[in-house]
Amino acid sequence: MSGQDQHKKFEEKTISSEPIFQGKIISLQVDTVTLPNGGTATREIVKHPGAVGVLALLGDKMIVVEQYRKPLEKSQVEIPAGKLDPGEDPLQAAIRELEEETGYRSSSLKHVCSFYTSPGFADEILHLYVAEELTKGEANPDDDEFLDIEAITLEEAQRYISDQKISDAKTILAVYAWQLYRLTGQIGHS
């Protein structure tokens, strides 16, 4: 079976789609689909414009931001990140988010990988970049963003994961990518 046929093997064809909610960042729709066995089911789908995250390395430290995350009802330490504006190139968004949230600029951003954050119910794709050769400028977060900026070592990042100060997928993935980078000298696509 070819790769194309393999992808079609489990395809669910949309019969109808009902918009439920249209927000500033996300929308929600309920699709009725035909299953591969001929049955039908409903799928609740969150549509998202996509996002970027930046593993910003300053010598032997990683730049992170701490901010309150309302869905979790607690503060989290995360890599600088943000959503894509309509039609925005992910690399340009990564440059923008790094500077807005931390004040840092980089002359060297490299794509590490892109991944879907929650494919069971959302189409959000996150593009992860690594930034090196950082120069400090002035942070300019959005009006509704309240952040503390910190530079942490790999060991501190691993402890933050153990203590759940870091518990989001993009930051955990960035920490493991950084660890691999330190071990192999390679990160992202060649």
From TrEMBL:
Residues 47-181 form the Nudix hydrolase domain. Signal peptide: none annotated. This is ADP-ribose pyrophosphatase. Keywords: Hydrolase. Its cofactor is Mg(2+). Belongs to the Nudix hydrolase family. One of its GO terms (cellular component) is cytosol. Coiled coil: none annotated. One of its GO terms (molecular function) is pyrophosphatase activity. One of its GO terms (biological process) is ribose phosphate metabolic process. It comes from the Bacteria.
